[in-house]
């Protein structure tokens, strides 16, 4: 899949999904914010792509899909869908490889700090506690997959996976699954 096709995948997913929570319910606002974040990252990705910034476009599209998948996982959005970060041929030009390396390593550090800087917020007897553990597991799994990509020298795959996993953690904060115990600057709160 090309980077352009990856952006179209996010655009199509946004067009198909809808808020599944009635407007008068408290979780409607959370669902609307998830949609808003995914749409903002899709728009940012398109802007970056049009400007020739393939590194930031890749990160934005992966982040947007992560937000959508996280919201869908909680039942806030429907239809339920998963857009796992598969391989994307981003065609990063040689002039952007330094930025790709810097951004990927920075996202690795940030996601590592973010994972260490949150605690599950819901009581252990709440079904939302299990959801928080799942969200942490997803973020951790994609963090590790991003590290594997870095170790293998595949910076594109690493950035894609780190961005996607980070989105799950960020969406979990917004949904109230976690409380921030570390730096709040690492999250979109």
Structure description:
With 189 residues, this protein is mainly alpha-helical. It has one domain (3-84, 96-186). It has helices at residues 3-16, 26-50, 54-73, 97-116, 127-151, 155-174; strands spanning 18-19, 77-78, 118-120, 178-180. The strands form 2 sheets. The protein has a two-stranded antiparallel ribbon with strand order 1-2. A two-stranded antiparallel ribbon has the order 3-4. Helix 3 crosses helix 6 (155-174). It is globular, with a radius of gyration of 16 Å. The mean pLDDT is 95.
Termini, distance in Å? 32 Å
Helical stretch tally: 6
Series of H and E elements: HEHHEHEHHE
Specify the helix fraction band: 55-70%
- Please tell me what the overall shape is: globular
In the sheet with the most strands, the strands line up as: 1-2
What's the number of domains? 1
Strand fraction equals 5-15%
Largest sheet, in brief, is: 2 strands, antiparallel
Low-confidence stretches: none
Number of strands: 4
The assigned structural class equals: mainly alpha
Measured on Cα atoms, how large is the radius of gyration? 16 Å
How confident overall, as mean pLDDT?
A: 95
Q: Nutshell version of this structure?
A:
66% of the residues lie in helices and 5% in strands.
């Amino acid at each position: 899949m090309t980077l352009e096709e990856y952006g179209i995948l996010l655009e199509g997913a946004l067009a198909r999904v809808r808020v599944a929570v009635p407007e008068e319910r408290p979780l409607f606002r959370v669902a609307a914010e998830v949609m808003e974040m995914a749409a903002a990252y899709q728009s940012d990705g398109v802007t970056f792509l049009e400007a020739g910034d393939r590194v930031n476009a890749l990160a934005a599209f992966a982040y947007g899909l992560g937000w959508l998948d996280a919201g869908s996982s909680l039942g806030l959005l429907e239809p339920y869908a998963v857009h796992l970060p598969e391989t994307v041929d981003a065609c990063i030009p040689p002039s952007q490889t330094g930025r790709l390396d810097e951004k990927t390593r920075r996202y690795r550090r940030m996601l590592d700090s973010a994972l260490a800087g949150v605690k599950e917020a819901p009581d252990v007897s709440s079904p939302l506690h299990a959801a928080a553990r799942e969200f942490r597991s997803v973020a951790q799994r994609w963090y590790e997959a991003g590290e594997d990509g870095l170790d293998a020298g595949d910076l594109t795959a690493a950035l894609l996976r780190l961005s996607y996993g980070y989105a799950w953690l960020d969406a979990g904060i917004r949904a109230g699954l976690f409380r921030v115990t570390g730096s709040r600057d690492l999250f979109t709160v």
